[in-house]
Amino acid sequence: MTPAPLPLVPPPAFRLGAFLWKLVLTPGAALSGTVAPALRAALGPHLPPAGVEAVLALLCFVAMSGFVTVTALVLTLAERKVAAFFQNRKGPNRVGPWGLLQPIADVVKLLQKEDTVPRAADRPVFLLAPFMAMAATYMVLAVLPFDRGLAVTDLDLGVLYITAVSGLGVLSILMAGWASANKYSLLGGLRSAAQIVSYELSPALVVLSVVLFSGTLSVQGIVERQAAGWNLWAMGPMGVVGMLIYLTAGTAEINRAPFDLPEAESELTAGYHTEYSGMRFSMFQLAEFMNMFVVAALTATLFLGGWQPLGPLAALHIPGYLWFFGKSGAMVFVIMWFRWTFPRVRVDQLMTLEWKILLPLSFLNLIGVALWTALGMK
To answer: Could you read off the pLDDT of 119-162 as tens digits, one per residue?
Structure first.
């Protein structure tokens, strides 16, 4: 009896290439749930479980690193162009057409800078601090849904996870300030600790109100529940108030002007990263720009429907990831608008804003959302 011919199984490289090409063309359709299950299904028949997980971790890290690098380069150029617009000047216009290659020139310059470590510094902690600044950003990006199913992973407790890991940023700033053996750096680190710890309370209460209204802790679930209407208006007046509180407190939490007291150059030279140079300095700047994007993306996710289209425009079939990046870009512009409009506040004004204004408003907003939900106003 002639044995049946063996089925032709494409090599792993072909299967992975076909999957990635489909992912580029139709991100939502290429993924079943999240990126991780789809990759496991593609590589599972050819690699042991440990090998699949290793390849998955490497691909996710490479993809996130590429995304972080490109996004930071775009944001640095956008920051300069927006600043020039508000200050009635041209901004970068020498390197490349319309100055578009200025971020590349900045990277080349930073690569040539000498990497110095102060003689009295706590060397291991000093060297580790910039990497800690980036770690929190990577961890938050892992659960952000860029489109339906387009996320590294979807945790059932995604909102709780984001709230927990976003606090790691203050640890890197404290490490940099303490290890630098510099009084300016130490003062910047201590200011940052007081500021970030204080301004974690209001965003946490606002996020809790969104969770209460949505009935889920999953970030993807919160976006999917906004299909009938974005939380900005579905939550009634509490949606507008919550978004304003979250955007204001988030701007303060990432040390952006007018709340950039930890690195106030007129008082502390450069604050906690005074002693850093070259690529280690650039890692702190990279983390700052990515944290700005994270705050903008979370604002878009929690209140503006994430990748969900605006009701009347759903018939245009615009890809979800374009909606997500469009909304996030709008929020990034608002954060930059803050920076180039308002002067830096004093320390006492900063704390008064949080403890006497934003925090009580956050509690009232949470109570309002609870009543709104209990009365069936969803």
So the answer is: 888 889 888 988 888 888 888 888 888 888 788 778 888 888 98
Helix (H/G/I), strand (E/B), else coil: 147:
strand
The pair of three-digit structure tokens given for residue 203, joined into one six-digit string: 């965003």
Alpha-carbon span 269 to 68, nearest angstrom: 28
What are the φ and ψ backbone dihedral angles of 33, each rounded to 5 degrees? Answer: 90, -70
Count of other CB atoms within 10 angstroms of residue 22: 14
Closest to 209 measured CA to CA, from 370, 46, 338, 91: 370
Q: Would you call 151 exposed, middle or buried from its count of C-beta atoms within 10 A (0-12, 13-18, 19+)?
A: buried
3-state DSSP call for residue 34? Answer: strand
Q: What is the pTM of this model?
A: 0.83
Gap between the Cα atoms of 263 and 188, Å rounded:
6
Name residues whose C-beta falls within 8 Å of residue 8's C-beta, 6 or more positions apart in sequence.
none
Could you say which DSSP state residue 150 is in? B
Confirm if 176 and 284 have CB atoms less than 8 A apart: yes
Cα separation of 330 and 208, whole Å? 24
d(CA 54, CA 46) in angstroms, rounded, equals 13
- Are the C-beta atoms of residues 52 and 40 closer than 8 Å to each other? yes
How far apart are alpha carbons 180 and 260 in whole angstroms? 19
Phi, psi of 268 (to 5 degrees): -125, 25
